[in-house]
Amino acid sequence: MSQHPEGKVIRDMPGITAGDSRSKSNLTRHLQAWLREKLATALSASNLEDLKSSVQAIRSQLEASQVSAEKIDIYRNDFAYPTIAIESVLSDLEQILAVRTMERAKYYMLRLQKSTVEVKTNGINDINLNRWKDYGDIYTDSLWLFPKRDRSGAHNAWYWGNFAPQIPHQLMLRYTRKGDWVIDMFAGSGTTLIEAMNLDRNSVGVELNPDIAIRTKNLIDSLGNASFRPRLIIDDSTSVNTSDLLRISGGQKYRLAILHPPYHDIIKFSEDARDLSLSADVQMFVRRLESVVSNTLKVLDAGGHIALVIGDKYQNGEIVPLGFMCMNMMLGKPLALKSIVVKNYDSTRGKRGSQDLWKYRALAGGFYLFKHEYVFIFRHRV
Questions:
Q1: 119 with 179, same domain?
Q2: Which whole number is the average pLDDT over 344-353?
């Protein structure tokens, strides 16, 4: 047996010899070459029985190897060799074995063969559409149910009001490519910036509160991936000098902007009068957020995307549809609404430990407790 560079054992199979010490990328390429060769042999079969026999042999060899459990890194693909997830290849082989005609079998075989040599993207992200089944961890539905927030790596939820790292993670995979620039106009504890580092994206964050910004910068500076080190500036996102933001990116426009503002005054984040959470009323909050959106559009690339993460609030016994008020404001800009995602959340820090009290209040007041927030996704029209 040979030892995978990450410690996984690979049982001997054609083309992989004991003691193989190649890098992960080279080993992946070797497996792809082996698979292409086997598929070509299967396609040369003259009848369905022989074709299925060859396909069964490929499947058995992949299943016998622990390579089949390998999650190949498909997000750092240089496209010189299309990467593949072996589990989805096994699914494709099962589909071929289930067909009843030679014509249909060859159709699926040719499609699988093509997906091992050609890359097709939508030009917005690095997702290889020829291997779309490989991306089981990318959400395409408008309901995002996260069992729990990601606390891996540098994500430790020390900041009251930060959002789940899964949100920027999903957005960056869908709306950026490796090396693109991402901006977060309410950087807070740096959730977006950390995810950008993890996914090899360049990023800039704007944060009003200097105490929070310094702590976030210290955290970011302690992390690896110096090639994609985020930049964090202390400023007011309603009036930030957008020329400075473009200077940081070397003049490149940002491909994705993420806005996670306060939900008006639900949490007061500082004593700074410029803080959106200190807005006198909802109308003022929306106007000030509009200034942030206008600044963001000055640095957002044409065809780029902007995501607003926000929830609603209760006031005087009534729901204030803050999310849709902000959505309507943004529809007055050169923006096309692409998706409205509803994301679940459990208890906030303010309500944690007092669920029974809040249930009583809901029963007494005739309302339902919020368990969701919105992710409004827009494309820049110009």
A1: no
A2: 61
